[in-house]
Specification:
Elements lengths: L2 H28 L6 H43 L4 H40 L4 H38 L8 H4 L1 H36 L12 H43 L10 H23 L9 H27 L4 H26 L4 H9 L4 H14 L2 H19 L12 H13 L2 H23 L4 H48 L14 H42 L2 H4 L6 H15 L1 H56 L16 H37 L6
Length: 721
């Protein structure tokens, strides 16, 4: 049998298995109790608001995507050295396919999460264990469909392009031709994450500051006009946005690894002892992702708590450890079965990636969970007011860059030098070091489906808590959802840490792929060096612009939330003033008006920062040429990763410091509990509102920005030479 078909087989089988598993999970969740009539009414309102927003958002995004695809296809056709029309056409079509699948990933993630929230609320009446399982399985639907679509999408586009161009374009050229798929996925993910983040935080900040601080009413109180918009925002930001984010991450990193495998494919092909296994270098990333789906599937099934659950986070961690353990076994099997050279060394590289994901799990938990020092420091600082809370939160955010940076550095160095020890017989000038970093990235991505399930768990439990509060369910039910909501904050932070960790490894991978693309187009011959000299003024300026882009983009994103939240605050205050019956419980607030404010603000405010990320790299490459674009990509990636860590972990720590106080764990000097309604709580709410656009708007959007910089330079590299 053709080697290509042998390697494609597990990708197809496990990809379809994951789709079937997701459908089974969805049926299992949707068949469960939907709770009381009051719970169902609130859930239906959330569902209507989320669907209405996504419909409008994706119409806007896809209008931009079609224009971008046409322009990009034309530019590639003009500057491509061979097969101009074909390459331009395929790049544009691949872009649109990647964009469509990325959008579909976000939509599916949001749809199932909204349907799961009311089932989780109903299950909370039976205890933590039942509610945890419903929420995790609801999240798993999104996780498995997103990763499966990424795998099958990349394989499908690869197969179609290869068959279409067969005879003219060798298999070694095909990975370069499908980079447009990754760019399309990144394009949609950026706007989906950015727009969803602006939507959710405009509502959240408005609801918290007016409702909890000024009016003194509980979170998710039905008297708060912004509460439905807030609950809708959890889905369009955390579910739809993150689904698109993880999809584009997996797609970009797989294609980047396939491009790096091309050099080793060519080196192996020249040696007579390989017996056709040389094509394994190109298919290796896809096969690894397929077995990662299998490991994640077993991990989800392993989480089946019975009876009372005292440590929900521990239950989720057990599933993650099962996934990690199976991934280690699978990566050794894949390397020894597929790779013609260096199976043992590359298997160790994969283990390094898996260990890196575990390290990020612990690091993120340390900085964002209420059981550790950073969150408790912020809570203690809240005793003396908002200013000290904010100072403490910012300092924690900056501190969080230390351990992740060291972890990433160790992972890159170890995997690079392990891969470099692999020798390619009879071949001069070929190093396996870069491919070692690619294998580490693939190892880290093997748990992506399970991690995304944990991420979607967060907004599901958050919504479940809101439904319980608004439907006046008993206090013991709210205690269950509060417990899971606090865990959900940590799992969301974990996913962001995981995403930025994989982005860091992938950034090096994609940077190397960019240099390979430049070499291919530039006809440099043997004179081409993979060294980019920062001492060159244009390279330095490119790097400076890349760093600037990260800060300006973050500023625009946070400012957008501030403007939208200001409109929301004024609207909530207006309703409280004009209708005293709202606070008395005799009138129903105008929820729809607040939802509309968030919708309009998100769609308006996402255009400028999103466009900035597309335009600036093109201008740098066209004006300052490919070396400056390389400098921009390299420095922008480093700064973007560190900034994302600050924003994600700092915001998560602020949020859980507030919840730490609300749970009654903070005490004054006299031993009095400083809980809800205290001055310390009010200060913590202010800190949380500062952290909201950090962790849910700017931070997650930076994950996409880092990958988008890489994919846009990959696709448009012919323009820069």
């Amino acid at each position: 049998m053709d080697q290509k078909l042998i390697y494609a087989l597990p990708v197809i089988v496990f990809g379809l298995l994951a789709v079937g598993f997701a459908i089974w999970m969805a049926k299992d969740v949707l068949a469960r109790d939907k709770g009381t009539a009051g719970m169902q009414d609130i859930s239906n309102r959330i569902f209507e608001g989320a669907i209405a927003y996504l419909n409008r958002q994706y119409r806007t995004i896809f209008s931009l995507a079609i224009v971008t695809a046409i322009i990009m296809g034309v530019l590639v056709a003009i500057f491509e050295k061979d097969y101009r029309v074909e390459r331009g056409l395929i790049t544009g079509i691949a872009f649109l396919i990647g964009a469509a699948l990325s959008g579909l990933s976000g939509f599916i993630g949001m749809y199932v999460a909204v349907k799961s929230n009311v089932r989780t609320a109903a299950a909370a009446q039976k205890g933590v264990g039942d509610a945890l399982m419903v929420a995790l399985r609801g999240g798993a639907v999104s996780g498995f469909l997103v990763i499966a679509m990424g795998l099958l999408g990349v394989l499908g586009v690869f197969g179609v392009v290869y068959q279409f161009a067969k005879g003219d374009v060798a298999i070694a050229e095909t990975p370069f031709w499908i980079v447009g798929f990754a760019f399309g996925a990144s394009f949609v993910a950026l706007f989906a994450q950015l727009g969803g983040g602006i939507y959710t935080k405009a509502a959240d900040v408005g609801a918290d500051l007016v409702g909890k601080v000024e009016a003194g009413i509980p979170e998710d109180d039905p008297r708060n006009p912004a509460v439905i918009a807030d609950l809708v925002g959890d889905n369009v930001g955390d579910c739809a946005g993150r689904g698109a984010d993880i999809f584009e991450s997996s797609a970009a990193e797989m294609i980047g690894a396939m491009i790096l495998g091309v050099a080793l494919f060519k080196a192996s092909s020249a040696h007579p002892s390989i017996n056709g296994r040389d094509v394994a270098w190109i298919f290796f990333p896809l096969v690894t992702g397929a077995f990662g789906l299998l490991a994640s599937l077993i991990g989800v099934l392993y989480v089946h708590p019975k009876g009372e659950v005292k440590d929900p986070m521990g239950e989720l961690n057990k599933g993650f450890y099962v996934v990690a353990g199976l991934s280690v076994i699978f990566i050794f099997g894949i390397c020894f079965a597929m790779l013609p050279h260096g199976a043992f060394q590359y298997a160790l590289c994969g283990v390094i990636g898996i260990l890196t994901s575990i390290a990020f799990l612990y690091i993120t938990q340390y900085y964002t969970a209420g059981t550790y020092r950073p969150v408790r420091d912020i809570a203690e600082a809240s005793k003396t007011g908002s200013a000290t809370n904010i100072i403490s939160g910012i300092s924690v955010g900056f501190e969080t860059t230390g351990l992740p940076a060291i972890t990433i550095g160790i992972a890159l160095m170890a995997s690079y030098y392990l891969g470099k020890t692999v020798e390619f017989p009879g071949t001069v000038g070929v190093s396996g070091g870069i491919f070692g970093t690619a294998v580490a990235t693939m190892g880290m991505l093997m748990s992506a489906a399970y991690v995304l399930a944990m991420d979607t768990f967060g907004p599901i439990t958050d919504n479940a808590g809101g439904i319980v509060e608004m439907s006046n369910a008993p206090e013991d039910v709210r205690e269950v959802t509060d417990t899971l909501d606090s865990v959900g904050n940590t799992t969301k932070a974990l996913t962001k840490g995981y995403a930025v960790g994989s982005a860091s490894l992938a950034a090096f991978l994609l940077f190397s792929a960019y240099l390979d693309e430049v070499k291919r187009f530039g006809n440099f011959g043997d004179s081409f060096s993979r060294v980019v000299n920062l001492a060159e003024p244009k390279v330095f300026v490119g790097g400076l612009i890349g760093a600037m882009l990260v800060f300006v983009f973050s500023s625009f994103a946070i400012r957008a939330v501030g403007r939208a939240a200001g409109d929301m605050i004024e609207e909530v205050r207006r309703q409280f003033r004009s209708d005293p019956g709202i606070m008395e419980g005799t009138s129903t607030p105008d929820y729809r008006r607040c939802v509309d404010i968030s919708v309009r603000s998100a769609l308006r405010e996402m255009i400028l920062p999103g466009s900035l990320v597309i335009i600036v790299p093109i201008l740098v490459g066209v004006i300052l040429r490919w070396e400056a674009a390389a400098g921009m990509l390299m420095v922008g990636t480093i700064v973007g990763v560190l900034m994302a860590i600050v924003l994600n972990n700092g915001g998560g720590a602020w949020d859980n410091a507030k919840k730490f106080i609300e749970a009654g764990h903070l005490k004054g000097d006299d031993g009095e509990v400083l809980g809800k309604g205290s001055e310390a709580h009010a200060a913590a709410v202010v800190g949380d509102t500062v952290g909201d656009p950090w962790k849910d708007t700017a931070g997650p959007s930076l994950h996409v920005l880092v990958k988008l910089l890489a994919t846009i330079t990959l696709v448009l590299s012919p323009l820069f030479i």
